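Example record for the data management plan.
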Amino acid sequence: MQAVTLQQLAEHLGATVKGDESIVISAVATLADAVEGQITFLANSKYRSQLEATKASAVLLTEADAQGFAGNAIIAKDPYVAFAKVTQLLDTTPDEESGIHPSAVIHATAQVGAGAAIAANVVVGANVIIGENVQLGAGTVIGNDSIIGSNTRLWANVTVYHDVHMGQDCLVQSGTVIGSDGFGYANEQGQWIKIPQIGGVRIGDRVEIGACASIDRGALSHTEIHDGVILDNQVQIAHNVVIGQNTAIAGATVVAGSTTIGKYCVIGGGCCISGHLTITDGVHVTGSTNITHAVREKGVYSSATVATDNKLWRRNTVRLRQLDDLFTRVKTIEKSLKD
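Corresponding structural encoding:
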């Protein structure tokens, strides 16, 4: 476990220390759970009551919150961002063992960069390029003609189909499938005729993909995930979707085929986004929202209804079905009054 002084942490963050610069920090924790040798943070005012009682050796605080606090602190503009950076520095996640495990199957035409770590039962196909310091977890499969950029990590049992290009410094959690066939079929007199999906997937740098996500390959051109995108667990990205840089999509959201999502968007969990539409840059979609039309203006969009008593919900549903009739009656009354 790495240990650093409070001064070293402050220098790493470009921040300042209030208190003892020499104390040693080895881990991060919450305000309530932290003990000596750990650092915590206050980013939400509802936890302010825990600040004075914390047993942490130091706290990440704004300048305003540090006023009157008797303990050691690092003064940061955004304590939550500072916490993220400290956590990266003190990360205890184990790396794969360097080198190639004897049980791995590497095609003779594949290229493996220096420092790569390839775990047990990994399969790497023909003409694959594995960059420097790539980590492939146990049971991971990389299909023919794919590229995995330097410093990228794929956890255990990730499946990457053929012709998938992934950039540098990416992270993919276990169980995710990248490059599976898009849902492309034609119907001939009731019979489904499969359309081969001959496009690939192109993933930029610093992309992070959660566990058990699915990213389909393109039908003709590629599915594209641009730099800095983060996708949560169990997200479904259909064929030929394009996601702009630094967009975030939370768990269980489904994006249908040929939709383009702009840069810096935030899509909440459980959303359904229809196909063949465009969402502009900087849009925030709250959880469980259904997007069925293009979104051309930046803003916050919602459509979900909150849970309510079942009897009330059933009554409201009946009234909703009567809405068109009510509208027609009101228009008729308005017309008669006008006449």
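Summary line stored alongside the record: The longest strand covers residues 38-41.
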